[in-house]
Amino acid sequence: MCSLVGETFQRFCAASSDHYVSFLKKLPAEELVRHSSAIFSLLKWSTRDSKAPAEDLKKAVSSFLLATSQNGVEVLRAFRKERGKIVDKDMVCSGCIWSLDVLITKFFYMRPVQAVHCLCNLELTGDSLLRAVHSVGVCPELASSLISFHSRGVKPTFKQLWDSTSDADAARRLLIRMARCGQADSVADWEALRDEVLELTESIYSELIHPDEAIDIVTREMLSDSRIPHDKHVLQLFLTLDKKAPKRTERGRLSLEKSAEVLIGKSEEMMQEASGPGDPVLMQSRSLAEAAREIAPKAAAQQLKLLETVDLAHELGSTMLPVSIKFAEPYAFLEEIVKLNGNYKQGKKCAKLAVLLGVDTPVATAL
């Protein structure tokens, strides 16, 4: 050890445990594992004359473990095996979210229910992280959640996962990523993905995300999938399309009010995403608005009227984006269309466009 420190024996004996850790963390993990017993003895020796040697030893060990656990848990497992009473499960679950200065005062005084996962300081993701989590043998519900996320192509760090269990926005972001990367190619795949997201939500996000929101997230992504038809038989697997349906909906299906909100909202979103005339997204937008006719007649009629306006304007030669047409000033837009390519000769179509835009008949006639 004196060779490692590279200083006098007297200075070495007077150094703090943190001083030793600053050198030890530079060693390869396999060396730290092989000499874990000696390292533990060194840390114990360094706290021998303190006022609270037991507590200071715990602090020294935690500092050492945090410094050596960036890329794996081999050292952590070795110390748990070496001194189970010191590196117990509470300790394994504590250090990572605390910076070292906060950790020094709080690490060993937290109640178990408040403890957080020591694996948070790992920079690993994917299979390497899964192996590390299983090898430590703590937090089984989060280990299971990691498997679910990984199976759907989402590979967060352990800290990202842990943070999401106390932050609704972080939880929402992970669930959206799961819905978007979920590798669903068929209706059955989307049903399975919905059920998995719902189960995950109820497992680790029950106090943050309502089950309806989890279903909403998957349903909106499913409606964006051009491979999935928007016919009633498919939609009713996720949505309630019958006004006479009981208020208490089946598991995995949104309520009547929420279904209307999703259909109209997604129709509007798709229309605004359309790049111009002939974009297939416009047909998808229309099919969703039509599906909402029974459960949201006014909103559906308004959306279908806007889509009809877009179609007619494009038919008359407009190249404006649908979203631009939606927010265009009606009188100025109608005048522009009438002047375009001799459209003034197509009186019936221009008159129909005027009605759709809500332009008064006398003004439309003058144009």
UniProtKB/TrEMBL annotation:
**What domain of life does the native source organism fall in?**
Eukaryota
- Mind listing the GO biological process terms from this record? retrograde vesicle-mediated transport, Golgi to endoplasmic reticulum
Q: Could you give one GO CC term from the UniProt record?
A: Dsl1/NZR complex
GO MF entry, a single one: SNARE binding
Tell me what this protein is called: Uncharacterized protein
Q: What is the lineage of its organism?
A: Eukaryota, Metazoa, Ecdysozoa, Nematoda, Chromadorea
